[in-house]
Amino acid sequence: MRFKNMNKVPGLYHTAPYLSQTQTRLLHVNLDESNSPYCVLSPTIFYPQGGGQLGDRGYLVLPDMLTSQQKIGVLTTKRKDEEIRHYLDINEIGFDLLKKQAGQQVTAILDWDLRYHQMRIHSAVHLIHCILEQVTGHSIPYPVRSPLNDESGENHYQLLDYIDKDILEKATTELNEFCSSGHEIQTVNVPEQGNNFRIWKCGRWSIPCGGTHVKDTKEIGMIFSTLKIKKNMTRIALRLSDNSG
Ligand SMILES: [Zn+2]
């Protein structure tokens, strides 16, 4: 879950994770190594894929002198070197037109359903880790990976033979009780640990993480969990009850 934050472009997804729309500047428009069009915004509310969290989707609204408004889809957001790239749903003509708009103000709008789901499920995968430590009495190494997708979030560990279905069920019950009683979640900068080093904190627990999280456990709602053991890996998969269909 630890990741390097090397971008120079300010990321409002850290300082204002609930901001779903903002005015920003279109810095430049370019093609990547695979000829996919992207743009760079300053500042940006779009979280770049990393730490298991998906890159944000959404769209940009451009001022247009001929028509009233023009919308361009953002398919995903990725970090590359010191840039945050917003991958665009445009054809060649759109690309050429957009290049001419560099330097202009645009409105950036997030796919808030996706982002908020990521914030909730991401917070839950941290909490289940901490609660599993509490239930088993083991100090559990941080997950090797914590991949999230549109429907669920997982923690992948090297095989943990002391975690079985019953233990996970007990931990999930405790997780749901903990979440429903409401606890503050903070994501804070720790400058003494390095530039933009961030940790997630809830109660007495903390985990290094540069992702986005909800600010109260009540926002997570009810969680369902599944245990999968595959290729010597223990996988804990979580799903939100309102997304369990
Ligand atoms: Zn996190």
TrEMBL record:
Recorded GO MF terms: aminoacyl-tRNA deacylase activity; aminoacyl-tRNA ligase activity; ATP binding; metal ion binding
Keyword presence, Oxidoreductase: no
Domain Threonyl/alanyl tRNA synthetase SAD: start-end pairs: 197-237
Zinc is among the record's keywords: yes
The entry's keywords: Metal-binding, Zinc
GO biological process, one term: tRNA aminoacylation
Cofactor(s) essential for the protein: Zn(2+)
Gene3D superfamilies, sorted: 2.40.30.130, Threonyl-trna Synthetase, Chain A, domain 2
InterPro entries in UniProt: Alanyl-tRNA_Editing_Enzymes, Thr/Ala-tRNA-synth_IIc_edit, Transl_B-barrel_sf, tRNA_SAD
The name this protein goes by in its record: Alanyl-tRNA editing protein
Naturally occurring in which organism (per UniProt): Candidatus Pantoea gossypiicola
Lineage: Bacteria, Pseudomonadati, Pseudomonadota, Gammaproteobacteria, Enterobacterales
